[in-house]
Amino acid sequence: MEILKVTVPKHRYYAFRKLWTEVFVPVFYQMKISPHLHAKTRKVELQTKANTPVNNLKKCAHFLHAFLLGFDLGDANPLLFNDDLCIESSEIKKVKPVRRGHASRGLLARLSDKGGKRKSAVEISTNTRILIVGSKLHIIGLSANIRAARISLCRVILGGSPAAKANSEGRPRIARLRDLVCLACSCLWLCPEKLIKL
Asked: What is the pLDDT of residues 69-96, one digit of tens each?
């Protein structure tokens, strides 16, 4: 029997308690893990049962981590059932150093665009989910798709290239990455034999 504790940040605690039943149901019934929410310490304790598969504890921890970062439950839910999905976080400052406050706001506005058009266009073209929180970017998806989304977002941040241009350059890259998927063993990850420099 294994136990893993996940701390709930203060700013996400109210939303977490409000949606506790939606978090509890897939974790308890489908993943065979019993979660306990401790209100005083603001921690979620994940405990395995006798019939729990080995990787389920790690999957539930990733699911909770994604939800606590700010993703919707619908976006975080596939982390429970797909082994190949992962979360990647990075800061905008690593792509382009910003010294003044208004410049960072300009970068965030350039990323999201009016009504989130640019962000959703990159999400659709790369088949990922992107979350912008402050100066941080969080991406959920397959590792190859995350790489393509990162390249598109970096182009938008650095050059301010329009969404259509960033996406049109991202689509062929995704197509090339899909061609590299190994069909012999029908796996979703890239085979080392087929890797080429992209």
From this structure: 999 999 999 999 988 999 999 888 787 7
User: Domain holding 49: CATH number?
Assistant: 3.30.1370.10
| Cβ-contact 12, 62 below 8 angstroms | no
The arithmetic mean of pLDDT across residues 28-45, rounded, is 93
Compute and round to an integer the Cα radius of gyration of the chain: 19
Predicted TM-score (pTM) of the model is 0.76
Q: Please give the residue range of the domain that contains residue 51.
A: 3-81
Give the model's pLDDT for residue 154: 82
Q: Which of 63, 81, 99 is the last residue of a domain?
A: 81
Instruction: State how many domains the chain has.
Output: 2
User: Do residue 56 and residue 103 come from a single domain?
Assistant: no
The string of DSSP codes covering 141-172 is: E-HHHHHHHHHHHHHHHHH---HHHHHHHHHH
DSSP class per residue in 169-189? HHHHHHHHHHHTB-TTTT-SS
pLDDT at 102 over 90: no
Q: Please give the Cα distance from 7 to 5 (Å, whole number).
A: 7
Distance separating alpha carbons of residues 178 and 193, to the nearest angstrom: 14
Average pLDDT over residues 172-180: 54
